[in-house]
Amino acid sequence: MTSKKLVNSVAGCADDTLAGLVACDPNLQLLQGHRVALRSDLDSLKGRVALLSGGGSGHEPAHAGFIGKGMLTGVIAGAVFTSPAVGSILAAIRAVAQAGTVGTLLIVKNYTGDRLNFGLAREQARAEGIPVEMVVIGDDSAFTVLKKAGRRGLCGTVLIHKVAGALAEAGVGLEEITKRVSTVAKAMGTLGVSLSSCSVPGSKPTFELSADEVELGLGIHGEAGVHRIKMATADEIVRLMLDHMTNTSNASHVPVQPGSSVVMMVNNLGGLSFLELGIIADAAVRSLEGHGVKIARALVGTFMSALEMPGFSLTLLLVDEPLLKLIDAETTAAAWPNVAKVYVTGRKRSRAAPTEPQEAPGSTTAGGSASKQMALVLERVCTTLLGLEEHLNALDRAAGDGDCGTTHSRAARAIQGWLKEGPPPASPAQLLSKLSILLLEKMGGSSGALYGLFLTAAAQPLKAKTDLPAWSAAMDAGLEAMQKYGKAAPGDRTMLDSLWAAGQELQAWKSPGADLFQALTKAVKSAEAAAEATKNMEAGAGRASYISSARLDQPDPGAVAAAAILRAILEVLQSQ
């Protein structure tokens, strides 16, 4: 079965993607009759060396994303994973020559088709009297024994684009640029890994992996790698890759040693999430610095992809200060990241947390009967929520991501851990404020934010008084805050429905001579009835609002949890 792709046609996808890039970037132009993109200010390059690169499509943003002042002059694109035509390469060389450039350097990844086609175009151009040189980049560190074909050209080629572009922009001649980038390329290595394959438009995946396998040492055309290893953590896979890349017994290793300075690239092969990419980058930084390697610059993103392949490659380039200046030189290329021109290693990566505001004297007093009673209430609430975890998750699966019970259990465990540290504050306002901070930090999700809002607002009326009218006002303040920021209203099938129903009954506390338990008992029963009634409501807020009401035949889990919390509070207070 072929994979789904958002294309107009399989045959035209390479032309369409290049046309789209040029249409959105005024700095680029297409060369008529060819799949070639060039700088739109080509005439400004008179007297300078032009840089051309390219290869098969499917590696976006390479190569056209790296056209610009300080990088490439133009690129020639082939069909997906296919070398570009000789005629188009020759046309690009002629175009830059006729614009007044003094020579052209072809930067070619080491693949047979690319070497042949770019090489043939070079020979034809030289026969026409055009000065053309060619560097073939092979930065693959996968093979421990070098084969006749040499090392494959991978993401490190982008760094060569950058170095060559900086030299050309500075007015360096063709021969000198060729010599210097050839030297730089020898101090570089790249290794890729993927969780599965990719698929060329109109075709099936190029290889299959079982659920517990990853492919190590693969190229950028969907070809299989050199090893299949068992799935492991990001830390373990990154460590394995770096060990392989720097092992001196590996013929294609990068000669990195403690004290070496490197430019590190973490390249998304196309289908990896940014979340995973950040984790991998962190693992790579920790591993390299743990071996005494200094990271001069770190580039993290998508630079040379393999369609939708869910994997990444790591590139290491040994650098000194002169080379760093070339890496740091200005460029207008759209796909080159805005990298800070300072060392990554040695930089302070955190700052002290802000100091907490000073609390009023005596406000944090713990112990005493009030504190013990609050601890008992909280323990019962926690036990209740932990017991409801699976039930709440089951209710949530109908309308959410099935984690409502897990979220509330996380809050319960956080509260239990906090109680083990010592008795809670005797002051109700301080207690609610502390719980608010705890839930905002530990509970997570929208539930954590809503409970945090509720408790923060509810604490304010209790700073001055703690009688029944103040507790009723606290409930009102909490409900108002939830509605203001959560945008839910009674009847929207949320946790607010239970709390709102309870809040209406607690208005009785504002009357002189009000009875604590009479109003609280009615509040709990109203909350439970409101929670049950949510199964007949159409969701007006929250994630459930995106689900058809026909599928919502169970009560809202947040409302059920809120009612259960109120029931636990009542039962403890009645038992005292």
UniProtKB/TrEMBL annotation:
The protein's Enzyme Commission number: 2.7.1.28, 2.7.1.29, 4.6.1.15
Residues the record marks as active site: H221 (tele-hemiaminal-histidine intermediate)
Span list, region Disordered: 349-370
Sequence ranges of Polar residues compositional bias: 361-370
SUPFAM superfamilies: DAK1/DegV-like, DhaL-like
GO MF annotation list: ATP binding; FAD-AMP lyase (cyclizing) activity; glycerone kinase activity; metal ion binding; triokinase activity
Keywords assigned: ATP-binding, Cobalt, FAD, Flavoprotein, Kinase, Lyase, Magnesium, Manganese, Metal-binding, Multifunctional enzyme, Nucleotide-binding, Phosphoprotein, Transferase
InterPro entries in UniProt: DhaK_ATP, DhaK_dom, DhaL_dom, DhaL_dom_sf, Dihydroxyacetone_Kinase
SMART domains: Dak2
Matching PROSITE patterns: DHAK, DHAL
This protein's record includes keyword Phosphoprotein: yes
Pfam families: Dak1 (PF02733), Dak2 (PF02734)
Binding site for substrate: G56, S57, G58, H59, K109, D114
Stated role: Catalyzes both the phosphorylation of dihydroxyacetone and of glyceraldehyde, and the splitting of ribonucleoside diphosphate-X compounds among which FAD is the best substrate. Represses IFIH1-mediated cellular antiviral response.
Family membership noted in the UniProt record: Belongs to the dihydroxyacetone kinase (DAK) family.
NCBIfam families cross-referenced by the UniProt entry: dak_ATP (TIGR02361), PRK14479.1 (NF011049)
Protein name in the entry: Triokinase/FMN cyclase
Lineage: Eukaryota, Metazoa, Chordata, Craniata, Vertebrata
